[in-house]
Amino acid sequence: MKLYFASASPFVRKVMVLLHETGQLEDVEIHDVATTPVTPSDDLRSSNPLAKIPALERGDGPTLYDSRVICAYLDDRAGGKLYAGGWDTKVLEATAEGIMDAAVLMSYEKRLRPEDKQWEDWKTAQLGKVLSACSALNTRWMAHLRGPLGIGHIGVACALGYVDFRHPDAGWRVGNEALADWYSDFESRPSMQATKPPES
Hints:
Blueprint lengths: L1 E4 L4 H13 L6 E4 L9 H4 L9 E3 L6 E2 L1 H11 L9 H25 L8 H21 L1 H4 L5 H16 L10 H10 L3 H5 L6
Parallel strand pairs: 1-2
Antiparallel strand pairs: 1-3, 3-4
Helix pairs in contact: 1-3, 1-7, 4-5, 4-7
């Protein structure tokens, strides 16, 4: 299998953490690509018509894309334990993906759009989604997060790690002390340490 990879992507990191946690890292060739919504990689587009990462090429079927699809496939391949929490696990994963989506859109607005065309209300709205989701995690989901490892744990940790990486002043920890404590503990896992985004 070949994974189309970019070290800064929280969606790719989620897949990488899963590979570490399930012992499948050696089964996958990591293929580093440089791609953005305005300058998509031709190499990636040949495998994923959306030209988005992550994408997982398989020898026995079409390329998989979307981190949720890839993670479900890899979890099933490893014995299917990370989705054992049923619908709660899937909702938690979706919440994590929503944080990633909003945080990545904030990054694109700042990094790809010319400064004189950036829309501050758009960035504020995306940050509001991040903070609202973190508040919901802190008030409704801590019992689940303190339970057995699932895909929701991995997704939430990768989402929060990306917010810290690209938006260190977001302030998601304010009022969310339980979530902040959980994340501080979870990010020390070897799988998280091995997949940290680059410093610059």
